């Protein structure tokens, strides 16, 4: 059932956060669905203001851990792993929250206090399977990739589009960094959507309107929108 799917990866069955399925799919990509597995609980003493987690979500009620910073408080808590769905924080269900809301709730937890997380880890699959012979395997890097992608949209039909240009990829990377600076999150797909919204806009006002139409739920501050517009312009002018 769709409600059991935590996230999907492209061309690997592993919970590899660098291969997460986003808004674009290559026409020759393989999609692997990671479903809910074992539940677990952990109590943690918050000894640092920064927990060291990067949270993302699948857009349909499943915030999960995308990164754990090495050496951080959460890295020391070995029961918590990349790919885990955060179901509750101190008994409060957060399954219906977006990733930035969950990140803020974790950030707002009082320092030097114990808090409790209930998590669901992705079901392990293919762990005991090995290829029949090493000669019969296909290196992942050699999987054929076209320049066309299938673009999935929350509104309107899916369309086949060209992949981002080198200029757009640089802009996406910069916008992703700005998201972390302003909002404490990194979300490459959100950054890509923002860059796409500014693709044919002539000024910051047009860009702000496009962002509001596409991502109105975020309510980005004006200063952030202006900096994103500047990053897109810098990429187009070759300054990134």
TrEMBL record:
Pfam families xref list: GIPC1_GH1, GIPC1_GH2, PDZ
Domain PDZ as annotated: residue spans: 41-121
Family named by the database record: Belongs to the GIPC family.
Protein name: GIPC1 protein
Gene that specifies this protein: Gipc1
